[in-house]
Design goal:
mainly beta, Jelly Rolls, Pectate Lyase C-like, calcium, transmembrane, Pectin_lyase_fold/virulence, EC 4.2.2.2, pectate lyase activity
């Protein structure tokens, strides 16, 4: 499926708004200075959100566009956005649970996410309560909870505010839970469900100042749901401190322009800088091996700052050594890139990412060594395949460094052990439901005619090189 890449980031209320907002509730009164500069209502899609589990898509709810999680049996479905060094902020979103699969099913928002399994979250739980939780390496601890009517099909506005170790949550403008935790000082924002389906809209992030201590105890009685606000949601995000501690996927870039492609673009040795334009239109978007490439690179050429949309034919062909820098494939058709150079060719993929590759992302038909680093991939068959049945075979090598993988996926690398292929891995982060089912390195007996035969998998110190520390699961 094609990915919608236009995420809306705007300044609400006519510009950067600075004000003081007070919220009254059972946990007391508190106020904070707020500057709004980041929000999205998904009217232009969900670019920049990284997925981990579940089935996420932009959908229509009445006349509005929403971000929808539709897989009821997903134990943990999450999407993340923003920056890893955001610290003192509030995140707010409208959340509509549409179904619960278990008695403890939930839907809500996340904050200070360190990765796919470590963050704070405020969730609406089936049965009628709201919980403020700290989740570390997938294990959750309830910091605070309150009784709140939860009706599938109804919209609720959830908000989490953080200043230092103080964390507070509100539902429809009423402060209902509060807690203290020093687990995470910074992190991204997120939307999350567990054994539930839900729609999300009007996500907003605001920089906040210090929060005074609550003046009253947490509520012990039900807090009635209120109507969805009809005014603009105050929103913003401002980075403050600390570097990221995990390999969270980088935000996908928004296109600066669109370029319709009817014939293969020949890229000379001097290279092509696409300046983050989106190129699309060649081929049929299917798996046919006979499609023309969108870009054909001369030996030594550099293709950089390009977004490749669908359809994209057979992607990128490198006739010799080449560099693909900051290249993003929104929807891989046949292959994202095919490498055809000779035995001494070197190919570099640095940065960028690929989505929706039902078969292969990188196809290695020629000889030489391919290095893939600082790359992200999600929803794929094989990230790399050394050609199993090319009429002329080669000894090939592939090196993966600092690659973030988001399930679903099948295999990171398939190589031909009988031809002496090697695959090396370091700094690999695999996230999402089914992450540990993804094969790291599969070995085949390659042929020049017919079909190759799978003969093994896993590290062996001969063809497949990686240690436990090289692969991190989140």
């Amino acid at each position: 499926m094609a990915s919608n890449v236009a995420q809306r980031r705007r300044v609400l209320l006519g510009g950067a708004v600075v004000g003081v907002v007070g919220i009254m509730g059972a946990v007391g009164t508190f106020a904070f200075a707020e500057t709004t500069s980041f929000s999205t209502d998904f009217s232009n899609g969900a670019a920049g959100w990284s997925k981990s589990g579940g089935t996420w898509a932009v959908a229509t709810d009445g006349t509005n566009r929403v971000y929808q999680q539709s897989k009821l049996d997903s134990e943990q479905a999450r999407v993340f956005a923003g920056e890893a060094d955001w610290a003192g902020y509030a995140v707010q979103a409208r959340v509509k649970p549409t179904g619960f699969g278990t008695a403890t099913g939930y839907a809500g928002i996340a904050a200070r996410a360190q990765g796919a399994t470590s963050f704070y979250r405020l969730v609406l739980v089936n049965g009628g309560r709201v919980e403020l939780q700290a989740v570390k390496s997938g294990a959750s601890t309830v910091l605070s909870s309150a009784v709140v009517p939860v009706t599938p099909g109804a919209w609720y506005t959830l908000r989490v505010e953080m200043s230092g170790s103080t964390i507070r949550g509100s539902v429809d403008g009423k402060a209902v839970v509060s807690g203290s935790s020093g687990l995470f000082a910074t992190g991204r924002i997120g939307l999350t469900t567990g054994h539930a389906t839900a729609d999300f809209d009007d996500v907003a992030v605001s920089e906040v100042g210090g929060l005074p201590a609550p003046t009253t105890a947490a509520p012990t009685t039900a807090v009635p749901a209120t109507a969805v606000p009809t005014t603009a949601v105050p929103t913003t995000a401002a980075p403050t401190t600390a570097a990221p501690t995990t390999n969270a996927p980088a935000a996908w870039p928004e296109p600066t322009d669109q370029v319709k492609v009817d014939d293969t673009i020949e890229v000379p040795k001097s290279g092509l800088d696409g300046k983050l334009k989106r190129y699309y239109g060649i081929g049929d978007g299917g798996q046919s091996e006979r499609q023309d490439p969108m870009f054909k690179l001369a030996d030594g050429a550099v293709l950089e700052n390009v977004i490749i949309g669908a359809p994209a034919g057979d992607g990128v062909h490198c006739t010799g050594s080449c560099t693909l820098k900051n290249v993003w494939w929104q929807d891989v058709g046949e292959d994202a890139a095919t490498f055809k150079g000779g035995a001494s060719a070197t190919y570099l993929v640095d940065g960028g990412g690929a989505r929706s590759a039902s078969d292969k992302v990188f196809q290695h038909n020629g000889g030489g060594t391919l290095t893939v680093k600082n790359f992200q991939v999600e929803d794929f068959g094989k990230l790399y395949r050394s050609c199993g049945n090319c009429s002329t075979q080669h000894k090939r090598a592939v090196v993966f460094q600092d690659v973030t993988v988001t399930a679903p996926g099948k295999t990171l690398a398939g190589i031909n052990a009988n031809f002496g292929d090697t695959a090396r891995f370091s700094g690999i982060t695999i996230i999402g439901d089914g992450a540990e089912k993804i094969a790291i390195c599969e070995k085949y007996k390659g042929v020049t005619d017919g079909e190759p035969t799978k003969i093994g998998s896993g590290a062996d110190g001969t063809n497949c090189f990686f240690a436990t520390a090289d692969i991190q699961y989140q």
